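Q: For a teaching handout, I want to show students what a protein-ligand complex looks like in token form. Below are the inputs, and the small molecule is pyridoxal-5'-phosphate. Please produce the holo structure.
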Amino acid sequence: MPTTAARFQPFGLTIFAEMTALANKHGAVNLAQGFPDFDGPEPIKAAATAAMARGQNQYARMQGVPELNAAIVARWKAQTGRDIDGESQVTVTSGCTEALAATFLGLINPGDEVILFEPYYDCYLAGIAMAGGIHKVVTLRTPTSPHAPFTFDPDDLRRAITNKTRAIVINTPNNPTGKVFSREELTQIADVCIKHNLIAITDEVYERLTFDPGLPHISIATLPGMADRTITLSSLGKTFSLTGWKIGWAIASRELTQCVRAAHQFLTFCSSTPLQHGAAAALTHGEPHIAELVRDLTAARDYLGRALEGLGFRVFWPAGTYFIMADHTEPSRRLGISPADDVAFCRRLTADIGVAAIPTSGFYDNKHWGRPLARFAFCKKMDTLQRAVERLSKLRQ
Ligand SMILES: Cc1ncc(COP(=O)(O)O)c(C=O)c1O
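A: Here is the structure, written as tokens, with pyridoxal-5'-phosphate included.
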């Protein structure tokens, strides 16, 4: 019998696929997987179908169609004030997922260590393992009050560095915590990168989904000394509610771009041509759609967060992304479940209450931090959230 290669055996089926299958089996409202249940903007879809109708259906260039590379350059300039060269510093990939894989494979040698902040997005682990690297974690500690951020101890970061450390992965705004890293925190990370000659790999797929004007998204690449040692990854899916398009990109110095492309050319070579044209239209003309999305998501966050608080969850209010982390200790007690069992809680919530959420211990090496927590996605229509809240009200009894 063929068996899965050893490098993937620790990972099994992703928790997102598992909880979505369970949600489908029980007809649950799916607040587990982070995709919108509403469609992306019509003019952006029209730009992709027009490209297809024009015959732009053959392989694209390895680094991306010129229109999209140029749109990414213009957007980077608008967001950061920095000039980059689209031909040698921008690589279009099949979603941020491929950009992550290409970055790890192109940069990490077997035995190299990569630092992650936990809770981490689970595909970082697999990407590092595919490259033969070893991950080390720094914990984002759960806040003690609802509006305080998850925070790390800079000494934990300094202690995690060894002579094998090659890179630090940052994900801001952060999935699953909803944390937006502050300038002070990014400066602490940048100082460590510079002192130890490390690369920053920064996943910024939620860069436009922030809710607190006092805590704007900052790209670590813009901090002094970081432009040449940062690979900035992002994608179209979250910002434009087009998660199924899987168009992403990597921005880096020429030298680091060569590392990313060394792997990208053999992973996919290039991404879907007509969708790259749609993506170029989104980045060029899409600002009003982003503003509307952020307005809707703010209302959705406030509605779901208040409802969860009313049901006995301790809600940690997110400053970005479209996820709420909530402590389920009190609702678990009412259901007769150990508060230290996030998996049991999310399974019961899905099967018996009819609402799926994600248990978070799988996003931690130090599982005890995640066991009291569940993640709820609020990138849903208001009536979907209302249906979820109606079902969740059974938790009161
Ligand atoms: C933090 C983070 N990075 C990357 C991705 C994947 O992005 P893409 O769909 O562009 O591959 C996700 C999707 O959920 C995510 O949450």
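A: Two things your students might notice: Residues 34, 95-97, 121, 171, 175, 203, 205, 235, 237, 243, 246, 248 surround pyridoxal-5'-phosphate (CB under 6 Å). The chain has a mean pLDDT of 96.
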